[in-house]
Every structure is written in C-alpha cells, then in structure tokens.
From TrEMBL:
The chain crosses the membrane at residues 29-49, 61-81, 157-176. The lineage of its organism: Bacteria, Pseudomonadati, Verrucomicrobiota, Verrucomicrobiia, Verrucomicrobiales. The keyword Transmembrane applies. The keyword Transmembrane applies. Residues 641-655 have a biased composition (Polar residues). Residues 440-467, 622-662 are annotated as: Disordered. Keywords: Coiled coil, Membrane, Transmembrane, Transmembrane helix. This is TIGR02302 family protein. Residues 528-603 form a coiled coil.
Length: 870
C-alpha cells in the first residue's frame, strides 16, 4: 500500500486494512461466482422444465443460453472490476468503510491522506502526523473492519446455489437422459438436438405423403426406450376439432380423412408432441408402356418400338422384347408380385430379354414412388404375340374391259399389304390352250408356218416391285396387251401375287381376273349382242312411253273440275316423275351406246355402213332427253300446280302430251336406226365367223397331219401318253369348233326370220341340208378313235365349204352396196367415204393412246432398271 516517504501508516492499521481487503475480495468473488452459477444453472433448469412442458421454441432456447452467457460475462468480470479493481487502495477501502461507518471511514481516510504525498507536504511536522496516525491506529485496533463489508450475501447465495445444484443433480440422477438432452439443447441453441421426452415415439417424417382423396391410417408407435406409456393420445388437423386415440399394442392410430390439399397434423401423448405436414398426392399410376422389339431373324428388320395400346403390346412371334413401363412419377422401387426386384430408371421400369412365344404373356409388377406411395393395384401389361400372317394382294382395273381385242391395252393396278414386310409384288397370267389364229377375210389358205401350230396355255409372270423387310405396302401397274404377251384370242386368267419374308411362305395370289381376249369376229359379235341389248331396252322404254301417252290422253278427257281433284293431281305428278325416270334411263342408254361405239370403232372387221347407222342412231337419241322429254316433264309438272286455273292446267297437259308424243316418235326412229345398224353388223359378222370356223378346221387338219407319222396304224390306247394327250386336246378343239357352227346356224335362223334378204334363207337351208354339225361330230369321234387320215380330209373339206358360204354372203353384200353410198345424199349428213375416213381417224387416235400408255409403262421400267444399277 503506498505511504508517505517520511511518515508511514502504523503497521497494525495497515494489516487491518489488508485483512479487510482480502475479506472483501473473498466475499464479493464468492458472490460473483454464486450469481454466475445461479444464472447458468437456472438457465439450464428453466430449459429442462420448459422441455418437460412443451417443445421449447428456438427463440427461448437462445434467450436462456444468452442469459447464462450474460451471467458468466457480467457477474464475474463486473464484480471483479467493482470489488477488486476499484477497491485496491487504502483510500478506496476507507471510503467503502465510510459508507457503513461514516466516522470511522472519515478518520481512516484522513490518516491515509496524511500518508499520501499529495497531502503529506501540507504539514511540516512529521511528529504531529505520526501522532495522529498512532492515535487513529489505537482507536481502530480493537475493531473488526470486516463488519463494514457492504451487504455480504455470499452465504445465502452459496446456499441457494448448493440447493439448486443438489436439485439439478437429483434431476440428473432421476432422469439422466432428460438432463443430458436438456444440457445438449442448452449448449447448442444454434442446432439443438430433438427434445427428450419420457414418452418416446419411433422416428416419423416431418412431411407425410398420403394418397390423394383417400382416407389413411397413420401409426405412431411407442419406442422401446420410452419411459411413459400414456393410454391415450390426442391429435388435431389444422383448425379442426381435437380428437383422441387410444394405445393398442404400443401403437397410436391416427385416422387421416381424405384430403385434397396439404394440411398439418399435431399429435400429443404424455409429454411428447409430434408435428408433421400432411401432403396428399396421387398414387403412381401407369402412364404408358412400350417395348423395344428385336424381331425374329428371318424378318431381317432393325429393332423397332411398339407402344402399348389399350393395355396390350403386340409384337411378332419369336421376338425378344425389352419392356419399358413408365409411371406417372419417379419411382424408388419396383418388383414382381413374387418380390423379385426390377430395374428402375427414374419413372421407368425396365424389364429386358422377354421372349415372346405363341401364347400371350401378362407382365405384372408393383412399384413405390420416392414418397413411399404404392400403386393402387398391380400394374399389368399384356404382351400379345402376333402371327406373321400371309400378305394380301388386290388386282384392280379393266372392270369395263373384260372382253378386249388382242391389240387393246388395259392398265391393271396391283396393290399388296403385309404386317411386317414384303419381298416382291407382281402379276401372272395363264391362258387356255388354243391354236394360233390369223383371220383371213379373203378366205385364203392359212399360213402354213402358223396354221395348225398349237399354242399352249401360255403362262407368264412379271415382278412389278421389289420390296424390303420394312416395306409393308407395295403398289404397281401392269399393262396387259394380249398381242405383246403373245396370247392368241382366248380366255386369260390374270392374278396379282406377292410374298413376304416368312420362312416357308409361299406366294399369295389375288382374286383372279378373267380377261376374254377376242378375235375381231368374236369382238364384232360381242358388239352386236350389246347393241341388241340396248335396242331391246330402248324398245321397253318406248312401250312405257306409249302407255304414258295413253294416260295423258285419258286425263285430257276429264272435265275441268275433275282435272283439279286430288286423284288427277296425283296422276299428273306420276306422269312427271315417270318422265324424269325415263330421261335418266335414256341418258344412261346414250352413254352406253357411245361407249359401245368407241369400242366398236377399234374393230376393222365391223362393216362401216353398220357403224354409220349406229352413229346416226346415237345422234338421233342425244337431243331427246334435254329437249322434248324435258319439256314434257315440266309441262306435266306445271299442269299439276295448285295455283293454276283449270284452263292453264289443261293447256299445260296438252303441251306435255304433245312433247311426250314427239319424244316417243324420236325414240322409235332412233330405235329403228339402231336395229338397222345391228342387222348390218350381224350380217357382216356371219362372213367373219364362217371364215374363222374354216380356219379352225384347217388348223385341226394341220395339227393332225403333224402327228400322222407318229400315230399311223395305232389305236389311242397304244399311243404314247404325251401324244394321246395331244390328240385329246385336238378332239376338244374340234368339239368347240362344232359348237361354234351350231351357234352360227342358230343366229342365222334368227336373222333370216327378221330380214327379207333371201341369201340368208338360202344359206341356212344349204347348211342344214349339208348337215355340217352332225358331220363335224363324226370327225370328233374319228379323232378320238385315231382315224387320222380320214379326219384330216374331212376337216379340210369342211373348211373349204365354210369359206365358200362366207364368199356367198360377202359377194352378195358387195353387189348390194352398188354405188357405195351415193344414194340418199339429201338425207345423209355425211358420205360413206367421209365416214370411213372419220373411223380411220378415230382408230388412229385410239392407237396413239395405246402407244402412249405402253410408252409410259416402258419409261417406268427404264427408270426402275436405272435405279437398280449402281
């Protein structure tokens, strides 16, 4: 303690002051320690008690931690500063004593001031200062200065601290887990561990995902380490009414109602409180499925991808599939119903190497998404094997050209389809066995190089398109022309074909199309027959129109009042409707006639005079539907109008009847013209048909002559099988020739009865008297009996006879033709020469169209070959 250099405080006084200072420091430091300890322990105890009551909020945890830290940082440093640092000198101690004993404090402060340098020089006498000090020292010597320590509460604070420590220790002994948990939570307010409770539950998530719109039971299970097992628990959703649940087998069951939006759940049991967010979410469902398909090796196709349609994935038998099933949300786990895990990639489940046999398979799987939701039901995907079926092929075109001349071209369309791939597309044709024929209108001998040479049923085919394993459809066009295909007039069956890549698969053929290749004489006969059908239909129409004329005349006889009644009005409407139907039918007949005329113009054997009459008949028909018939229909309709007067109705009826009669007469004139044309055509066809029959007989004779050296002297049973088949074929052709003669006789009989020309009656009588049909039947029998030489002679004789009859008709026609069309100049709009020239122009145009069609076909072939050339 600082003192005066000359006079010092008495040693006893100094010792008393030092003892006071030591005691002061001890008491106040103890108080600081106790206060700091109380602050720390009270903070901890308050947190412990708070945790027992509720989940202490983090803010309160921070406040308690700060309070404890403040107690440590406040009481000890501040207390030390106040009672140690500020009470280190004698003067400071004297002033502290003076706060409790003012007189003692003043005397001590006065003595201390005498001892200090600041005040010591005021007094010159050292003895006086020393005497004063000694006197004060004697007065203080008997006193205990420590009683002047201000408010000493160290004992009380220590007692409180001891009691609090004991109580805290007791808590630690009774519930060490809770105490330790509270200590950790108190020391770590920044990241406190979970609050310890005597009632403990197994861990549960902060967010619980449940199925959307479904009620759900969530189980909260007591942990094995729980100290308390409350019989009841309580829970509440948001602002709803608090509900109660009982403990059963260590589990509290919370019934969560169907939710459409997120909610919060608070559960309490004993001292535990568990809060979680409830999020409703749709279960993972099947979104789509697809399979990567490794096709069977024979298909030679790259891997494909087949999507699921209506729950089914279809693929060819023998394929290997990699199935990809896509869920509506990312998955955490997937497995078969037997529990075998499956590969999961995000929201996809991948099942590799599925071999698809003949029987369908059903793949079943279960899955769980990343929030623990399972599918509502087992996911099923059906794998359906598809048989590699035969391809389909269709042949179209030529529907109106089934009977064609051998030099006419028909464009046919072939289309094929398959489920997996086509190898090729083509067309094939098969003809009937026949003889080569070259008609000779002059009746000359057959060409020895061609006559009698059998042309077998020619078979041919042409590949139109080459496919590949990935092309499931092919289209192509085929230009059919009998002459280009070296087919004589005969019946030809045309079929489209295609083939796929299936092992052992055969060609698949379309429905056959039968094309009758006609010779010019057969074609002329077909034209004539069709023209006769048109004339017959026109005749039927004329009969109906005559009946309508009678009906109109009957209506004209009615009184005016009767003409306006309901029945008459209905009859007038019926007349108009029937007239309209006749117009429609007549237009169809005109279209057919024009088409037939166009087809007839292809045939050079048809007599131009008959073609001219045909054209005149069509020209007479064309204006009728849109002139007189149309006017008659309108006037019949007007006569039935309700706003007409009786006079106007009668006038319209009379006009309609007049126009209708004119139309009927025009149809009769046209029908007569067409009938004349048909007769002319029929007469011209007899020449061609007789020449054709003669040529067939020459062909049969030549064919028999070619076999004569082989079969002479032998019976049919002794012949070689191939030669016997050839003879049987010749016999069949002879039988067909006999039938042709019978048809000629029958047609000639009908024709002579319709015409007054004697040549046809005489010819018919000659043919009947000659009994040619019966004689040809005998030739047929001789051929079958291998009587060859006689059959050859008879066939050539009958051929000569047929040519003779054809020449008779031809000479008669030429003599009747006379001046070649010079007569009737005022009545004919075009001369015979001009008409023949017009026919030539028409045929040239048709030939040009055929050439253009063939050129296009050849150009396609050329492009196809260039495309294949590397």
């Amino acid at each position: 303690m600082p003192t005066s250099p000359t006079v010092k405080l008495p040693v006893q006084l100094v010792r008393q002051l030092q003892a006071f200072r030591r005691r002061l420091r001890t008491v106040k430091i103890l108080e600081a320690i106790c206060l700091a300890g109380l602050a720390v322990i009270l903070s901890y105890v308050f947190l412990y008690v708070s945790d027992r009551v509720w989940e202490t909020p983090p803010t309160l945890g921070w406040i308690l931690f700060i309070c404890a830290l403040a107690g440590l940082l406040t009481f000890i440093p501040w207390w030390s500063f106040r009672w140690v640092w500020q009470r280190r000198t004698a003067a400071q101690l004297a002033r502290l004593i003076g706060k409790k004993d003012a007189a003692l404090g003043d005397r001590l402060l006065g003595v201390i001031e005498l001892d200090s340098e600041k005040y010591g020089h005021q007094y010159s006498s050292a003895k006086l200062k020393e005497a004063a000090m000694e006197q004060v020292a004697r007065e203080v010597a008997g006193q205990d200065l420590t009683v002047n320590i201000p408010r000493p509460r160290h004992r009380m604070l220590f007692l409180l601290l001891s009691i609090l420590v004991l109580c805290t220790g007791a808590l630690c002994i009774v519930s060490p887990e809770a105490a330790e948990n509270a200590l950790h939570r108190w020391l770590q307010p920044f990241n406190p561990p979970e609050r310890y409770t005597f009632t403990q539950l197994d861990p549960s998530p902060d967010t619980l995902v449940i199925p959307l719109g479904e009620s759900h039971v969530y189980e909260l299970r007591l942990a094995d380490s729980t100290k308390s097992r409350p019989e009841t628990g309580h829970y509440v959703f948001g602002n709803r009414v608090r509900q109660q649940t009982t403990l059963a087998d260590g589990v509290y069951k919370v019934l969560i109602p169907p939710l459409q939006q997120a909610d919060r759940l608070e559960f309490s049991a004993g001292d535990v409180v568990r809060r979680m967010r409830i999020v409703p979410k749709a279960r993972p469902s099947l979104l789509s499925a697809a399979a990567t398909v490794a096709y069977p090796e024979y298909m030679d196709r790259p891997d494909g991808r087949e999507p699921m349609r209506a729950g089914v994935i279809s693929a060819p038998e023998g394929s290997t599939l990699t199935l990809e099933v896509t869920a509506s949300q990312p998955l955490a786990f997937a497995a078969t119903p037997q529990g075998k895990p499956l590969r999961v990639d995000g929201s996809k489940v991948i099942i590799p190497s599925i071999l698809l046999g003949k029987d369908p398979q059903e793949m079943e799987l279960t899955w769980t998404d990343r929030d623990g939701l399972a599918a509502a039901q087992t996911v099923k995907v059906r794998l359906e094997p598809v048989e590699d079926k035969q391809p389909s092929v269709y042949l179209r075109g030529g529907e109106n050209d089934r009977h064609v001349l051998e030099d006419t071209s028909i464009e046919l369309e072939v289309e094929a389809a398959d489920d997996f791939g086509l190898r090729e597309l083509g067309v094939e044709w098969q003809g009937e066995k026949s003889f080569y024929e070259e008609e000779n209108l002059d009746g000359g001998a057959a060409d020895p190089e061609k006559a009698g040479k059998p042309v077998p049923g020619l078979h041919g085919e042409k590949v139109l398109e080459t496919g590949d394993p990935t092309r499931t459809g092919l289209k192509g066009t085929f230009l059919f022309q009998a002459r280009a295909l070296k087919l004589s007039p005969q019946r030809v069956v045309v079929r489209g074909f295609t083939q796929d890549y299936k092992p052992g698969g055969k060609r698949v053929y379309s429905e056959p199309m039968v094309i009758i290749v006609l010779s010019k004489s057969e074609h002329a006969q077909m034209i004539r027959n069709e023209l006769e059908r048109i004339v017959s239909e026109l005749e039927g129409m004329i009969r109906r129109m005559d009946a309508m004329t009678d009906e109109a005349k009957r209506l004209k006889t009615l009184e005016e009042k009767d003409l306006r009644n309901t029945e008459a009005q209905q009859r007038l409407h019926a007349l108009a409707d029937e007239e309209q139907a006749n117009r429609r039918e007549l237009n169809e007949l005109i279209n057919r006639s024009e088409t037939l005329f166009k087809e007839a113009s292809r045939n050079t054997q048809i007599d131009p005079s008959g073609m001219k009459e045909f054209m005149k008949g069509i020209s007479m028909l064309k204006p009728v539907p849109d002139s007189t018939m149309k006017n008659a229909q309108k006037k019949f309709r007007d006569s039935a109008a309700e706003n007409n007067t009786p006079q106007e109705s009668r006038q319209s009826l009379s006009g309609g009847e007049s126009d209708h009669s004119a139309a009927t007469q025009a149809l009769k004139d046209a029908m007569n013209q067409l009938s004349k044309s048909a007769q002319d055509m029929e007469a011209s066809t007899f020449v061609a048909r007789l020449i054709q029959a003669a040529y067939k007989e020459d062909s049969i004779a030549s064919s028999l002559a070619s076999q004569l050296n082989t079969i002479v002297g032998m019976t049919m049973e002794e012949l070689d099988p191939s030669t016997r088949r050839e003879m049987e074929t010749i016999a069949t052709l002879q039988n067909a020739s006999t039938q042709d003669i019978g048809w000629i006789l029958e047609d000639l009989n009908y024709y002579k009865s319709r015409t007054e020309e004697r040549i046809y009656s005489d010819l018919y009588n000659q043919m009947n008297a000659f009994s040619l049909r019966e004689k040809l039947d005998l030739v047929h029998g001789n051929i079958l009996n291998s009587i060859t030489a006689q059959s050859i002679d008879e066939s050539r004789l009958y051929a000569s006879t047929l040519r003779h009859w054809a020449k008779l008709i031809d000479d008669y026609k030429k003599s009747r033709g006379g001046g070649g069309g010079g007569g009737g100049g005022d009545q004919e709009s075009i001369s015979d020469a001009d008409f023949e020239f017009m026919l030539k122009i028409i045929r040239m145009i048709q030939q040009e169209q055929d050439i253009r069609m063939r050129t296009r076909a050849a150009e396609k072939e050329h492009r196809k070959l260039n495309a294949k050339t590397p």
